[in-house]
Structure to design on (498 residues):
């Protein structure tokens, strides 16, 4: 099997866990939250998404990108166990210190985040961060050892448990309390729905950590290599700013709307909840890029020392661009149908979806182009690019979110500007320091054509007016035409590559 086919196969399996499970999670929970649990409370939905931003941001600091260092220093079979033990022990001690310190500061943290009176929110997300941090290296080992099926099963199981607990707390528990079950009456509080969402997540994450517990026992027994640890830190710490920037660029819209849209916190949280619901459609593109990155990063590390042929990187980038453009068109063209997954109170910001989808396509290209500085041990370039991108994101949001007509659109345009810059910068610096023959002209052609077809689709809607099925049929033909055009032009190329 060619390396490109192997990458495609592993991406598909990682996609099972990353895309399919989170897509099921989205299909089930987004309608449930916006149509039932928080149908008339977008502010509470805004709180959930705001707190998840802080969870994601803290995970960058608590893992300090040690999983990427593990890929780098554990890629040789004889080094794997030593690298695993060293990375695992490092995270175990730093995570314990983080959890203890944060638990002592729950009330000040709650006040700083405008959740006065709810320090329990902070406790739950601190424990979630701790559990997810400790599973980072075991999951990375599954990826490095090319065990995507086990990786997928664990991710699927975690999502299933999370969903089951959410429905238990928000649906079954109040019914049992109404029926007079004393234990349920002691637990159920109608004003505690946000907390129940995080408790469900904690239980799911805790079960995964319990599964990996034997690996930590073996890691402690395997010893701790101080010299290797210092080398891993030197490699991983420059990647932390890039990770922080990635979270800010992807998720900061919700907390910034919460803080900047107006002087009314309750109103801002409602806007943040509506914006967060709209971004769920763009997450479908992001999940694809994440699945690709899950497979590509360890895959390229494994093959970097066995072949000097860099063509596979260009082939993978072109394949990603083609699939990403089809996904972009498909989601936007069928938005009139899939928008009904959201409750009526949450559809106001759907105009940001095409912008965010295009932004996430550029993010995927950045993942492709940025592999050079990881393979060449020049990770500082990732930090430089990410920090500039973060500056672009924050500047646009600070300038435009306070304008009422731009509160929703500012984070979307900020993401597009940021990811567009980062993709271009990663490609340009790579051509100077680690040249890879990317077919950028063809990639640009397909992206330009996809954007033109998006504009054509908007024109179709304007011309046909209320004739829904006519517009849908024309947009379907446009999508099929694009897919047929790309297959006709590129099928021979990929056959030769494969």
């Amino acid at each position: 099997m060619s390396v490109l086919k192997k990458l495609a196969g592993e991406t598909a399996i990682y996609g099972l866990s990353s895309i399919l499970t989170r897509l099921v999670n989205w299909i089930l929970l987004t309608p449930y939250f916006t149509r039932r649990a928080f149908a008339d409370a977008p502010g509470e939905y805004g709180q959930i998404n705001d707190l998840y931003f802080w969870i994601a941001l803290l995970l960058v600091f608590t893992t300090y990108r040690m999983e990427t260092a593990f890929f780098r220093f554990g890629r040789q079979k004889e080094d794997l166990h030593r690298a695993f033990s060293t990375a695992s022990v490092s995270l175990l001690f730093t995570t314990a210190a983080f959890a203890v310190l944060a638990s002592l500061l729950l009330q000040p943290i709650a006040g700083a985040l405008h959740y006065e009176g709810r320090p329990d929110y902070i406790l739950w997300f601190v424990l979630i961060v701790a559990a997810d941090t400790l599973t980072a290296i075991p999951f990375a080992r599954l990826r490095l050892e090319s065990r995507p099926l086990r990786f997928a099963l664990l991710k699927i199981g975690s999502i299933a448990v999370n969903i089951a607990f959410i429905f238990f707390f928000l649906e079954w528990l109040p019914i049992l309390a109404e029926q007079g079950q004393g234990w349920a009456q002691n637990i159920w509080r109608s004003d505690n729905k946000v907390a129940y969402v995080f408790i469900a997540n904690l239980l799911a994450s805790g079960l995964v950590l319990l599964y990996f517990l034997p690996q930590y026992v073996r890691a402690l027994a395997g010893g701790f290599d101080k010299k290797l640890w210092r080398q891993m830190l030197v490699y991983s710490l420059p990647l932390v700013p890039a990770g922080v920037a990635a979270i800010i660029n992807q998720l900061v819209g919700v907390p910034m709307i919460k803080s900047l849209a107006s002087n009314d916190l309750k109103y801002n949280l409602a806007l943040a909840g509506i914006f967060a619901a709209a971004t769920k459609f763009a997450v479908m593109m992001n999940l694809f890029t994440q699945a690709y990155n899950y497979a590509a990063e360890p895959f390229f590390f494994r093959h970097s020392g066995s072949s000097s042929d860099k063509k596979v990187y260009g082939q993978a980038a072109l394949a990603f661009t083609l699939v990403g453009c089809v996904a972009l068109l498909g989601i936007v063209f069928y938005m009139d149908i899939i928008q009904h997954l959201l409750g009526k109170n949450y559809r106001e910001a759907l105009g940001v979806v095409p912008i965010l989808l295009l932004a996430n396509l550029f993010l995927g290209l950045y993942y492709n182009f940025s592999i050079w500085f990881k393979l060449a041990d020049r990770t500082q370039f990732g930090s430089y690019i990410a920090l500039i991108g973060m500056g672009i994101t924050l500047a646009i949001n600070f300038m435009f979110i306070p304008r009422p007509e731009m509160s929703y659109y500012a984070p979307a345009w900020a993401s597009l500007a940021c990811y567009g810059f980062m993709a271009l910068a990663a490609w340009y610096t790579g051509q100077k320091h680690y040249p890879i023959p990317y077919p950028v002209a063809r990639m640009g052609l397909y992206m330009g054509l996809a954007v033109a077809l998006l504009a054509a689709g908007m024109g179709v809607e304007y011309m046909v007016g209320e004739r829904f099925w006519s517009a849908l049929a024309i947009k379907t033909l446009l999508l099929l035409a694009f897919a047929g055009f790309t297959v006709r032009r590129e099928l021979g190329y990929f056959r030769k590559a494969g």
Observations:
- Residues 3-497 form one domain.
- The chain has a mean pLDDT of 87.
- The CA atoms of residues 24 and 89 lie 34 Å apart.
